[in-house]
Write a structure and sequence with these properties.
The chain is an all-alpha fold and 325 residues long. The protein has a domain of 215 residues. Helix content is 74%, strand content 2%. Strands 1-4 form a two-stranded antiparallel sheet. The protein has a two-stranded antiparallel sheet with strand order 2-3. α11 packs across α12 and α12 runs antiparallel to α13. The chain is globular and about 50 Å long. The protein starts with a helix and ends in a 9-residue tail after the last helix. The C terminus is likely disordered.
Length: 325
């Protein structure tokens, strides 16, 4: 009961802090916070596949790009309604994840990883070469943030602070849904697949179907992140589908903690803030970021959140005299 109280108190404080950023912070801090939340949605969805199911994908940027291009094409050619655009982007990413996942989940370990990489680069190549549809290497520009019409009221997203609360809404919804998935019987089966897929198969459950469901859910959240990112930047480009972009949720999950729920969120904050700071002093930000990442992984087992959790557990099981009870 006491743990639940502290959990609710922490959630309330975090939400209050996020709302305060949108109300009182400058445009740069608001913009940076939106990038953190969008990356966190991408990473939390990805961690359902990596941390929960134990499958490493190198092609998830394809689904991020699917969400971005789905929204962009719908916005430019059909309707500028942001909600409909996000829906189209998410549906395109979901369909793409279903097709790619159908072929990939038949394999595991390095074969699965290489297949996802191959499919991801196929999507990148298609976006690059289908210039008439996707704009080629120029990407899609002019994706406008039009007002949201709810019938009796119209909410403008053009102002940065207004769009911040729009992103915050989707971030909170994503955190809630992913928490439900992880704590559900479905999430427990995914954990079983990570630990021992043979036992899950012997229990009569379809390993391939559960892996495919995990893959599709993960790709759908990547599509949501891509759609929100395209609206934030008012454009998107083929490199959103490049394999190097797929590395971001992996790095974020490693930094925060693969086996933890809040790890991808904490990792997103560290990734965006550290990158922003390092880029101000040197163009070789990847070198220094790699060194910092090595220090975190080697110094904190289980990432930042996992390391802190282990630290508190160690302190809790130790008596004041230093001996174990």
């Amino acid at each position: 009961m006491q743990n639940r109280f502290w959990t609710f108190l922490l959630i309330a404080l975090v939400l209050a802090g996020l709302v305060s950023i949108g109300l009182f912070s400058g445009r740069f801090v608001v913009y940076l916070s939106m990038r953190v939340m969008i990356l966190a949605i991408f990473a939390m969805g990805y961690n359902i596949l990596l941390g929960r199911t134990g499958l490493l994908s190198f092609g998830h940027a394809a689904f991020y790009a699917g969400g971005a291009y789905g929204l962009g094409l719908f916005s430019i050619h059909v309707s500028t309604d942001p909600l409909l655009g996000i829906l189209m982007g998410v549906l395109l990413a979901c369909a793409l994840a279903l097709i790619v996942g159908f072929f990939c989940v038949r394999h595991t370990e390095i074969y699965f990883a290489m297949l996802t990489l191959a499919f991801g680069m196929m999507v990148f190549s298609l976006i690059w070469n289908m210039r008439e549809l996707t704009g080629g290497d120029d990407g899609l520009v002019g994706i406008m943030r039009e007002p949201i019409s709810l019938g009796f009221i119209s909410i403008s997203l053009l102002k940065t602070s207004h769009y911040y609360f729009f992103v915050l809404f989707w971030f909170v919804v994503s955190v809630w849904i992913i928490h439900l998935i992880r704590s559900s019987p479905f999430g427990l089966v995914l954990s079983g697949l990570r630990e021992n897929d043979r036992r899950v198969e012997f229990s009569g459950l379809s390993v391939k179907n559960y892996r495919l469901a995990s893959f599709v859910i993960s790709g759908t959240f990547a599509g949501l992140a891509g759609a929100l990112g395209a609206l934030l930047e008012n454009n998107t480009d083929p490199f959103s589908a490049h394999w190097s972009h797929s590395a971001e949720p992996i790095l974020v999950s490693l930094i925060g903690g693969i086996q933890t729920f809040t790890g991808p969120i904490v990792g997103s904050v560290i990734f965006i803030v550290l990158r922003e700071i390092i880029e101000r002093f040197t163009q070789n930000w990847m070198l220094w970021f790699g060194i910092i990442l090595l220090v975190i992984i080697m110094g904190l087992r289980g990432g930042v959140v996992g390391g802190i959790t282990q630290l508190f557990k160690g302190g809790r099981h130790t008596s004041p005299s230093g001996g174990k009870p």
